[in-house]
Amino acid sequence: MALIIEKLASGALGVSHINGKTVFVENALPGEKVEIKINDEKKGYIMASSSEILERAENRIEPICPYYGVCGGCDFQFVSEKDSAYLKQDIVKDNLMRIGHIEYLPEFESPAYGEMEGYRSRCRVHVDLKTKKQGFLKKGTNELFDIDFCPALEKKLNGLISEKGGRLFKEARSRMFENRVNRNTGYAEVALFSGDKEVSFGNNLVDIEVSGIPYKVSANVFFQSNPRVLPKLFDFVKEHTIGDNVMDLYSGVGTFSALFEGSGKTVYAVERQKECLALARINAPSAISFSDDVAIWGRKSGRHVDTVIVDPPRVGLDKGVPEMISSWKPERIIYVSCNSVTAARDLPLFTGYRIDRVKVFDFYPGSSHEEIAAVLVRA
């Protein structure tokens, strides 16, 4: 069965229709005519993959990775970095209108993006302690795919993966003795984060400097994986932060709080995970830190604030949090999100505010993930 792809949806899935049903197609681009293979059919939609591209889009390229389509990592390497960023911007616009029911789109700044190769400073490697194979899982399975090199990873991480039986294997073996082998796969998993000079294998701290700001992080806490694009997000957040009182919600390791060190601003940082908060006190020592759930803390600690920066997990904000933030009446709200679906749901819930502008940050070129930052101002 042949279909014309109309647009892309979240997950970089092509969208078409059959007999009133929406069809989501893997490995397809807008305007392409593809022969599809139906993988799953539900009541309201169909999941499919393109078995053959009958009419190819002009912006389609060949994936840079020899493992593409087998490895379960990257799923959007068939467009350039620039096209990836702009296609993801179209997805975000569609989500805001379709999910957020926003009638008029705000201003969209040009998306931020960087090179697809050698950008990624974070990964989780699976290690088979019996065969010494190490790599990632095959697409849609728990089967280990042994690799020597990943084009997306920076060189220190690739060096560890290519060295069979080396330090990475020894770290995985220690996890076996600590009974930390994944029961579903049977493999040991080693989280890695590459700092400026050293690699973190879990809890050990490494240094990384971004935009002249020093951070201490580990592989066991979240810190953005693309240090090439991160400065562009920093510039956006700093540009749109106003006033002397700033609130940094879901502050993590103090990523945004650290932007205001030495500025004279009073920064309140709220983070539930104590391991992150301990690093935030190192990375942003002048911030006033609180260890609590944002929803609980906000209900008992509301205060005057000029700008609220909120960077929730992929599931978005808990019920009632947008209304709670709105009740503080900040002049500016900056919502950073790694999931434009939940962002599109949350953004209209800020009572008395309108979306002034949005910028897409393509932190993961070659994959379908996108990140956005939206600025809200009083309506």
Please tell me about this protein's structure.
With 379 residues, the chain is an alpha/beta fold. The chain folds into 3 domains: 1-59, OB fold (Dihydrolipoamide Acetyltransferase, E2P) (Beta Barrel); 86-115 and 226-378, 3-Layer(aba) Sandwich (Rossmann fold), CATH 3.40.50.150; 122-209, no CATH class. The chain contains 8 helices and 21 strands. Strands 7-20-21-19-18-15-16-17 form an 8-stranded mixed β-sheet, with helices on both faces. The longest helix has 18 residues, at 81-98. The relative contact order is 0.12.
Which structural class do you get from the secondary structure elements?
alpha/beta
Helix-strand topology string: EEEEEEHEEEEHHEEEEHEEHEHEHEHEE
CATH fourth-tier homologous superfamily of the largest domain:
Vaccinia Virus protein VP39
Individual helix count: 8
In short:
This protein has 379 residues and is an alpha/beta fold. The chain has eight helices and 21 strands.
Task: Please outline the helices and strands.
Elements lengths: L1 E3 L2 E3 L3 E6 L2 E6 L6 E9 L3 E11 L25 H18 L8 E2 L13 E6 L6 E4 L6 E3 L8 H8 L4 H11 L10 E7 L4 E2 L5 E5 L2 E5 L12 H11 L4 E5 L16 E5 L3 H10 L4 E3 L3 H8 L5 E4 L10 H7 L4 E6 L2 H7 L6 E9 L9 E8 L1
Parallel strand pairs: 4-6, 7-20, 15-16, 15-18, 16-17, 18-19
Antiparallel strand pairs: 1-5, 2-3, 3-4, 5-6, 8-9, 8-11, 9-10, 11-12, 13-14, 19-21, 20-21
